[in-house]
Amino acid sequence: MTHKPTATNAHDYIQHYMSIAPDMPLLDALRATMQQFEDCLSNITEEKSLYRYEEGKWSIKEIVGHMIDVEVVMAYRAYSISRGESQTLPSYEQDDYVRDVDYSQKKYTELMQQLRAIRAGSIAIFQTMSDNELDREGTYSAPTNQVSPRITGYILCGHMIHHINILNERYLNT
């Protein structure tokens, strides 16, 4: 399969990410969305990375941190499912993850380097999976979703596009 599949038994947020993920081979989509994310934030300074469009909303740095968290969690889920994990994989609370890190003390450029490295690791994980492993189904919760590693890879792409859109609409047009 060279283009994105459909996620028929998944929650609405997964359906949304799948709908905006690029319709191209998975590895190309993972590379392309990372490049789009980098291009979107190419002019961000350390000072600008602290910007929030509204009190209580994440800063640009926190969005990058959130992208790192999601990349790690989703790559782990994809890897586990590809290896035949039969237990429901745990959910995680994105707001808790972001809240529990003091991103104001982290360098924006280092966070971007970390995200690039983790995406490269995700690509390496997906690249080594056979079609059978990519299409094996497993479950993770919050709410319960029956997905394959291939779908999980496209979720990563759609999630990144979702945040590019938010960054362009609410952060970068000020």
What is the compact description of this entry?
The chain has helices at residues 12-20, 26-40, 60-82, 94-99, 108-127, 131-135, 149-171; strands spanning 138-140, 145-147.
Set down the secondary structure blueprint.
Layout lengths: L11 H9 L5 H15 L19 H23 L11 H6 L8 H20 L3 H5 L2 E3 L4 E3 L1 H23 L3
Antiparallel strand pairs: 1-2
Helix pairs in contact: 1-7, 2-5, 2-7, 3-5, 3-7
List keywords for this structure.
Four Helix Bundle (Hemerythrin (Met), subunit A), two-stranded antiparallel sheet, 174 residues, mainly alpha, 7 helices, 2 strands
Describe what this molecule looks like in 3D:
A hairpin with a 4-residue loop joins strand 1 (138-140) and strand 2 (145-147). The chain is globular, with a radius of gyration of 16 Å. Helix 1 (12-20) packs across helix 7 (149-171), helix 2 packs antiparallel against helix 5 and helix 3 runs antiparallel to helix 7 (149-171). 58% of the residues lie in helices and 3% in strands. Strands 1-2 form a two-stranded antiparallel sheet. By secondary structure, the protein is mainly alpha-helical. It has helices spanning 12-20, 26-40, 60-82, 94-99, 108-127, 131-135, 149-171, and strands at residues 138-140, 145-147. It has one domain (12-171): dinb family like domain (Four Helix Bundle (Hemerythrin (Met), subunit A), Up-down Bundle), CATH 1.20.120.450.
